[in-house]
Amino acid sequence: MDSDELKYWVAFNRIPRIGRARFTLLRDHFGSLADAWRAGTSELKAAGLDARSTQQIATRRPTIDPDAELQRLADGDVQAVTWLDDDYPARLKEIFDLPPVLYIRGRLSPEDERSVAVVGTRKPTAYGREAAYRMSADLAKSGVTVVSGLARGIDAIAHRAALEGGSRTIAVLGSGVDVIYPREHATLAGEIVEHGAVVSEHPMGVRPDAQNFPRRNRIISGITLGTVVVEAPEGSGALLTANHALEQDREVFAVPGNIFAPTSHGTNRLIRDSAAKLVIDHRDVLQELNLSSVGQQTEIVGQQIEMTALFPQDENESQVLRYVSYEPIHIDEIIRSSALPISTVSSALAMMELKGTIKQTGGMNYIRLKETPAEYQIV
User: Is 110-302 in the same CATH topology as 1-64?
Assistant: First the structure.
């Protein structure tokens, strides 16, 4: 779209209550939003706009300079695309309530058509953190773009896992793309811009608002092939994303959790009610989405490189690894169970953490990251 027309799409997007339906009315009636911007009140009503929307336009239009809006985007290195543009995500065009304008920092890529959302609670357990990290990292290594909402907890873990795997990731915000929330994720957002995109339907400068986030979730699900929910208590935003995905006829997946943990009530219910497919690793997701061939091609090289790191290098590592599982275990318990000296256990844990076999979850607790083939273990 040429800039002469785009600036009016961006300008109208600044006005409250002017969304998909009203953009459609204006464009259908006037032929262009440039003509709609210059229309009087009676003409706007003739286009089918209600009195409140017409009043909003009449009140706000004098305060908005379309040319200044375009300049603001250029100064912020932000791209704006409309649903008429080829650069607008094709899958997002399929949803009913599609955003008229999408703001992008970074860049969207054709490979993002192979994208999966990973969402969940802002307060995950150690199990949830590890499940989200492994699922996201493995999807990323399989050539899948990981999409989430940059929130605390599972969202941030999903983005970080994709980035550490050298893959693309997209963050969908409930604010302007220049207003990062939460603030502590500003650095993470900057990395995402370098290796993917930060996107929003909200104009630049819009502050985060509670009512924005539930609607933001329809974009997360709408832009992807499917949504993976990792730890979601009842009433959580992640479940809203899953509901949007179901309404959009997209696949929904859920990682099962502890039946006694409130953080898993939502995910377990999705599975129980057959609203989501139970998944235990990324291969389940790839298979359901017919992406297995892509995953196999990208994983072969990674498997060859990582294979040696799976094996304990000596008897001490093998002995220590026997007591580290996928549930956190404290170093003191490992020392008691293995009957090895403190220095030996500490050294073995440090070495295996460097190799990515295990991970410290905090407070000197450790969990396993990779399974060591039994036939190669040192005994």
Answer: no
Query: Any idea which architecture 1-64 has in CATH?
Result: Orthogonal Bundle (1.10)
Q: Residue ranges of the domains in the chain? A: 1-64, 110-302, 311-376
Give the pLDDT of residue 166: 84
pLDDT value of residue 277: 98
What gap in Å lies between CA 251 and CA 222, rounded to an integer? 11
Q: What are residue 171's DSSP bridge partners?
A: 148, 198
Rounded to whole angstroms, the Cα distance separating 182 from 205 reads 15
Distances (CA, A) of 14 to 11, 100, 340, 352: 5, 11, 66, 53
User: Residue 278: what pLDDT?
Assistant: 98
Among 168, 47, 170, smallest CA distance to 102 is for 170
Distance between CA 160 and CA 152 in Å, rounded?
11
Q: Which fold has domain 311-376?
A: Arc Repressor Mutant, subunit A (1.10.10)
Find out whether 71 and 77 touch, Cβ atoms under 8 Å: no
Task: Name the stretches of the chain with pLDDT < 50.
Answer: 295, 297-298, 300-310, 373-379
**Residues 361, 235: Cα–Cα separation, whole Å:** 27
Would you say 222 and 92 are in contact if contact means Cβ atoms under 8 Å apart? yes
Query: What is d(CA 207, CA 341) in angstroms, rounded to the nearest whole number?
Result: 54
Question: CA triplet 245, 248, 250: central angle to 5 degrees?
Answer: 55
Residue 365, helix vs strand vs coil: strand
User: What is the model's pLDDT at position 14?
Assistant: 96
Residue 347 phi, psi (nearest 5): -65, -45
The single residue listed with the structure tokens 């200044």 is 68
Query: Can you give the C-alpha Rg of the chain in angstroms?
Result: 24
The tokens describing 34, both together, are 């440039």
Name the CATH architecture for the domain at 110-302: 3-Layer(aba) Sandwich (3.40)
